[in-house]
C-alpha cells in the first residue's frame, strides 16, 4: 500500500493521472471535435424539441384542462410549425457549411439524429395532438398515422446512411419536405379521414424509390425563400391579419401540390428513359 504525502503532492504539482488525462484530451483528433456545421445541426435538434414543447404546452395541455377552443390554438400551432421550418433552415445550411468548411466525423450521425427529432418526432407528435383536439378527430387513427410517419423517417434516414446514390438526388421524399407536407395537410383543415389517408401517402413517399433533387445552388435558394414565405404566412395567420387565414391555406395547398407533382414528374421521366433505352436496344439489335 502506497501512502501519498499531501505536502509532497502540493509541492510537486498535480498527480500523474491528471497529466495523462490532459494529454489524452490534447491528443484527440480534430475530426471528433464539433465544427460550425455541427453547431447548426444541433440548432436543428433544439428547434425540433421546442416544437414538441409548444405543441404540448400551447395545444394539448389547454385542451386537456378544458381551456381549449375545440381546435388547434393558432399562436401555439404557428410557433411549433415555425420552429420546424427553422429546423429545416438549419438542416439546409449545415450541409452547405459542411461542404465549404470542414466537417467532423460526427457530422453525419448528428445530422440523422437531429432530423429524427425535428422531422420525425415533431410532426408525428403534431399529428397525434391534432387528432386529440380536433372536433372530428379520432385519436387512435391519428396515432396510427403518426407512427407511420415516424417509422418512415427512421427507415429513410437508416437507408440514407447505408446506401450510395448518384450525386444530386435523394431516394424517397426528403424528411424535411415530408414533415412540412404532413403539417400542411393538418393546417389545411380538410375532413379527418382524407387528411389521414394523405398523411399515410406522404409516409409512403418518404420510403419510396422516387428520386427527389437535392437542394443545391438555385434550388437551395428557392427552398430558403419558400421557407421564409411560409414563416410569414404562419405569422399572418397567428396574428389575425386580414386575409392571413386564406394566405396560410394557399401556402399549405402549394406545399401539398408540390409534394404530389414531384413524384408524377419523376415517374414520367423514368418511364420516358425506360422507353428510350428499349428503343436504343432494338435499334442496336437490328
Automatic annotation (TrEMBL):
GO terms for molecular function: CDP-diacylglycerol-serine O-phosphatidyltransferase activity. It is an enzyme of class 2 (transferase). The keyword Metal-binding does not apply. It catalyses: a CDP-1,2-diacyl-sn-glycerol + L-serine = a 1,2-diacyl-sn-glycero-3-phospho-L-serine + CMP + H(+). It is a multi-pass membrane protein. Its EC number is 2.7.8.8. The keyword Transferase applies. It is found in: Endomembrane system; Membrane. The chain crosses the membrane at residues 42-65, 77-96, 116-134, 141-158, 178-207, 219-241, 247-268. Its main location: membrane. Keywords: Lipid biosynthesis, Lipid metabolism, Membrane, Phospholipid biosynthesis, Phospholipid metabolism, Transferase, Transmembrane, Transmembrane helix. It holds the Pfam family CDP-OH_P_transf. Belongs to the CDP-alcohol phosphatidyltransferase class-I family. NCBIfam families: pssA (TIGR00473). This is CDP-diacylglycerol--serine O-phosphatidyltransferase. It comes from Actinacidiphila acididurans.
